[in-house]
Amino acid sequence: MPQLSVAGQQFEVALGSNLLDALKVNGIAVPSSCRAGSCQVCQVRCVAGQLHDAQPQALPAERYAEGWRLACQCRVEGDVQLEVFDPEREGMQATVVGHDWLTSDVLRLRLLPERVLRYQAGQHLQLCAGPELLRPYSLASLPNEDHWLEFHVQCRTQGAFSDFARQLQLGSTLRLGAVQGGSLHYDPDWQSRPLLLMASGTGLAPLYGVLREALRQGHTAPIRLCHVAHDTQGHYLRNDLLALAEAHPQLALEFVVAAELPAFLAQFRLVERRSIALVCAHPVRVGAFAKCLYLAGLPRARVFADVFVSANEQGE
Ligand code: FES
Fold it and tell me: What is the reported pTM?
């Protein structure tokens, strides 16, 4: 049987075991959430031996070359030596400089990192509330413009991270993990193409960053942003978006409550097949949006989607 060496321990596991399961069963603290290669919180570093990785393309090439792997996507097929991500050793400290409620259950958290952090609008970042409590959150801030990192934390239902985030105060510190690239970004080549941004709940956060990036880069074609929320109170950036729309006439906004979504999708029409769509929502919503876009004639290659990691903590 293959032998795993990690954190000063060695143990044997069955050939072909899922690495994340094997680590957890043997008491090694590795955070996990989606188990689908999307949230990327389950990273471990392979320093010797080989793993069978079902999604080697999920991590940036540079990080992959450093030996990082997504434990949930790997099978053990021989002896391996691993290191687990240690926020204390490898993370960066950040200080809470903003902690306010956009609605009764959406917390806006602004963090000032101890060093300049390079990221792009639409990416996400791991926030660490303890060795086993890492959560990826989308960045709503705009690099080189906002001097803080901004996150929108859905606290409607209880969850380990949202409970932690609630009790943070100005001046509190926490550790940051790695910046992860999702599918959401703004490409300067899109400047003359209609842009369609579709989000539910706090999936709006990365699209708010991407929207401001597009406007900053002088996007000239129409931009249509659709936000789905549980109820009208859930349109938590409504005033900020209305202010942007007033300053940028090419921006059109649609605020939809969940009960009206089926009717909204049924009457949805695409203006141009050249459009680019960016979607961020719970997986069920992403599926509904993607189907609607496909039926409206938008090729799948022009749809970029990120899903929420945890319905509990980030649902609408
Ligand atoms: S738990 Fe492995 S990528 Fe999300």
Answer: 0.82
| 179: enclosing H helix or E strand | strand 173-180
Is the distance from CB of 308 to CB of 315 less than 8 angstroms?
yes
21 Cβ below 6 A of ligand 1: no
Ligand 1 center from residue 43 Cα (angstroms): 8
Is residue 58 in contact with ligand 1, taking CB distance under 6 Å? no
CA distance 249 to 174: 40
Give Cα separations from 109 to 21, 30, 68, 103, 218 (angstroms): 32, 25, 28, 13, 28
Tokens representing 56?
A: 């080697």
| Per-residue confidence band for 203, with pLDDT thresholds at 50, 70 and 90 | very high
- What domains can be seen in the chain, in order of their start residue? 3-85 (3.10.20.30), 88-180 (2.40.30.10), 189-314 (3.40.50.80)
Grade residue 8 by pLDDT with cuts at 50, 70 and 90: confident
